[in-house]
C-alpha cells in the first residue's frame, strides 16, 4: 500500500498548522455469491479503496473520508479537514497518543496470530458452496421456502499512521455464510437461520451438515404453543446467550460511563456475577476476527478479565474516553475510515461452566429454553430488560414442545447475579458464550 501517500498527507497537514494528524487507508477485495430456491441471485466481485484523514489543532479535531485517492482530490480533502477543524467545538480530551504510550508494530507477532488465509475462493467455488448450503436444507420435505443462502470472502489491507510516529500495516481475511429457511405444515410456518464469520474459509464448517441442521431446527419449531404468563427459569442457548455479554459490554463502555448513561457507571470493583464467573477479552486469540496486537491509536493490546471472580474490573476505553475518566488506556480503540476512535471489545467470551447444556435442561422441573430473540428493550441507565423470544418449554427435565410469541423480562443486575454457564462454549463470533441458565425470570405469554 501507499505509505508515501500517507506521509505526504501528514506533512501537508503539519504545514497548514495542524498540531497532530493521522491517516487510515483501507483496501478491500470482496467476492460473494447468493442463491435462492436453487436459482442464482447474484455473483459479485468488487474492489475499493477508502481513506480517512483526522486533523487535530489545539482542542479541536475533525475527520474527513473519501474513496478517491487521486492526488488532486487528496489536496482537496486536506484543505477541507483543515477548514473543518477551525470551526468544530472544543474537545478537551481529543488528540493522538503520547510517545510513551505508543507500541511499535510487530509484524512477526501479528503473523503468528494467523489472520491471513492464503486460500482465495473463486466466484464459482462460492456459488457451489451457497448451492450446497441451501440444497442440503431444501432436501428436508418439511422445508417449504427459503430466504436464500450467501457465501462471501473478503481480503482487507490496512495502513494506519500518525504524526506521532504510530504506524501499522497488515492484511486480514474473513469469510462468511448466511442461510435462512422456512418450515411449514397445517399449523403454520417457522423460520430458522444460521450464519458464521471466520478468518479462514475452511473454518466455516461442513456446508452440507449446516444446511441439514438448519432445516432440522426449523422443523422442530413447528406446532408451537403459547404459554401463560409466569415466572420460571430460563436457559439461553449458546447461539443467543452472547447477547447478554453484548449488553454487559455496552454498559462497560467508557463513553457511556462518562456520559452517565450506563447502569455500571459506579460499579468498578463491585460484584455483578457469582464468584465463579470470569469474562475475558482476549485480543491475542489466533484466527479470530477481532484479534489485534495494537489498537487503532497505537496502544498495546493485552488479555484482560472484564469480570474476575464475579467482579467488574475495567471499562473499555479509547484514549479520549480514558482521559475523560482519568483512567489508563486499555487498548480498545477502534475506528473505521469515516469515524473517530471509539471503545470496542476485541474477542470477548464467558468462560465455560462445570455442567453440560443437557444437565441444565435436566435440572429444571419447568422452564424455558430460548433459541431465538427478537427486538430489544433495554434501559441502559438502570438495566431493565425485555425481549421477544421463542424456544422450547421444559417439563420435568425434558424438552416438551416449542413455544412462541412470548416476552422474557427482568433486570440485568438480577440476570447477571444468578447466571450459571454450561460448558458448550464455541468461538464462532466476536462475542461468545456457552449456554446459560438464568433463574426466576418473568415470561409474558397469554
Would you kindly provide a written description of the structure presented here, covering whatever features stand out?
There is one protein chain. With 446 residues, this protein is α+β, with helices and mostly antiparallel strands. The chain folds into two domains: 3-218, PmbA/TldD superfamily (PmbA/TldD fold, 2-Layer Sandwich), CATH 3.30.2290.10; 225-445, no CATH class. The protein is built from ten helices and 19 strands. It has helices at residues 3-15, 71-85, 107-112, 123-138, 207-220, 238-251, 254-259, 319-325, 357-362, 412-417, and strands at 20-36, 39-57, 60-66, 143-162, 167-185, 188-198, 230-236, 279-281, 304-308, 311-312, 333-334, 342-343, 348-350, 366-378, 384-395, 398-411, 420-421, 431-432, 436-444. The strands form four sheets. A six-stranded antiparallel sheet has the order 3-2-1-4-5-6. Strands 7-14-15-16-19 form a five-stranded mixed barrel. The protein is globular and about 75 Å long. The model has no long low-confidence stretch (mean pLDDT 97).
Question: Which descriptors would you attach to this protein?
Answer:
PmbA/TldD fold; 2 domains; five-stranded mixed barrel
**What is the total tally of β strands?**
19
For the record, give the distance between the C-alpha atoms at the N and C termini, rounded to a whole number.
60 Å
Query: How would you characterize the largest beta sheet?
Result: 6 strands, antiparallel
Average pLDDT value?
Answer: 97
Could you estimate the helical fraction of the residues in percent?
Answer: 10-25%
- Name the poorly predicted regions: none
Spatial strand order of the main sheet: 3-2-1-4-5-6
Structural shape = globular
Q: List the secondary-structure elements in sequence, H or E.
A: HEEEHHHEEEHEHHEEEHEEEHEEEHEEE
Number of helices: 10
Give the percentage of residues in beta strands: 35-45%
Radius of gyration: 24 Å
Amino acid at each position: 500500500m501507499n505509505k508515501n501517500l500517507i506521509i505526504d498527507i501528514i506533512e501537508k497537514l503539519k504545514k497548514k498548522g495542524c498540531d497532530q494528524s493521522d491517516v487510515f487507508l483501507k483496501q478491500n477485495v470482496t467476492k460473494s455469491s447468493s442463491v435462492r430456491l436453487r436459482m442464482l441471485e447474484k455473483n459479485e466481485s468488487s474492489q475499493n479503496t477508502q481513506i480517512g484523514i483526522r486533523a487535530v489543532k489545539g482542542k479541536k479535531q475533525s475527520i474527513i473520508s473519501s474513496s478517491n485517492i487521486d492526488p488532486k482530490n487528496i489536496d482537496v480533502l486536506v484543505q477541507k479537514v483543515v477548514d473543518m477543524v477551525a470551526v468544530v467545538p472544543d474537545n478537551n480530551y481529543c488528540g493522538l497518543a503520547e510517545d510513551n504510550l505508543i507500541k511499535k508494530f510487530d509484524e512477526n507477532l501479528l503473523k503468528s496470530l494467523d489472520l491471513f488465509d492464503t486460500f482465495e475462493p473463486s466466484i464459482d467455488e462460492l456459488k457451489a458452496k451457497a448451492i450446497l448450503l441451501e440444497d442440503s436444507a431444501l432436501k428436508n420435505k418439511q422445508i417449504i421456502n427459503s430466504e436464500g443462502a450467501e457465501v462471501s470472502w473478503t481480503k482487507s489491507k490496512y495502513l494506519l499512521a500518525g504524526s506521532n510516529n504510530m504506524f501499522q500495516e497488515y492484511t486480514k481475511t474473513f469469510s462468511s455464510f448466511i442461510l435462512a429457511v422456512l418450515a411449514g405444515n397445517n399449523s403454520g410456518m417457522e423460520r430458522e437461520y444460521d450464519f458464521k464469520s471466520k478468518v479462514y474459509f475452511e473454518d466455516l464448517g461442513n456446508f452440507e451438515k449446516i444446511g441439514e441442521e438448519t432445516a432440522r431446527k426449523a422443523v422442530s419449531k413447528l406446532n408451537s404453543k403459547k404459554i401463560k404468563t409466569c415466572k420460571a427459569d430460563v436457559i439461553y442457548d449458546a447461539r443467543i446467550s452472547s447477547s447478554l455479554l453484548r449488553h454487559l459490554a455496552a454498559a462497560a463502555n467508557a463513553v457511556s460511563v462518562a456520559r452517565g448513561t450506563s447502569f455500571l457507571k459506579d460499579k468498578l470493583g463491585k460484584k455483578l456475577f457469582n464468584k465463579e464467573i470470569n469474562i475475558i477479552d482476549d485480543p491475542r486469540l489466533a484466527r479470530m476476527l477481532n484479534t489485534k496486537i495494537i489498537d487503532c491509536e497505537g496502544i498495546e493490546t493485552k488479555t484482560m478479565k472484564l469480570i474476575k471472580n464475579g467482579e467488574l474490573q475495567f471499562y473499555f476505553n479509547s484514549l479520549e474516553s480514558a482521559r475523560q475518566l482519568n483512567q489508563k488506556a486499555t487498548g480498545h480503540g477502534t475506528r473505521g475510515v469515516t469515524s473517530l476512535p471509539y471503545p470496542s471489545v476485541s474477542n470477548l467470551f464467558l468462560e465455560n461452566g462445570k455442567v453440560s447444556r443437557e444437565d441444565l435442561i435436566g435440572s429444571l422441573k419447568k422452564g424455558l429454553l430460548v433459541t431465538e430473540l427478537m427486538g430489544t428493550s433495554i434501559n441502559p441507565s438502570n438495566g431493565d430488560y425485555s425481549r421477544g423470544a421463542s424456544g422450547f418449554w421444559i417439563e420435568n427435565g425434558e424438552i416438551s414442545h416449542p413455544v412462541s410469541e412470548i416476552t422474557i423480562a427482568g433486570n440485568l443486575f438480577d440476570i447477571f447475579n444468578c447466571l450459571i454457564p454450561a460448558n458448550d462454549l464455541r468461538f464462532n463470533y466476536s462475542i461468545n458464550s456457552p449456554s446459560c441458565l438464568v433463574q426466576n425470570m418473568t415470561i409474558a405469554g397469554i
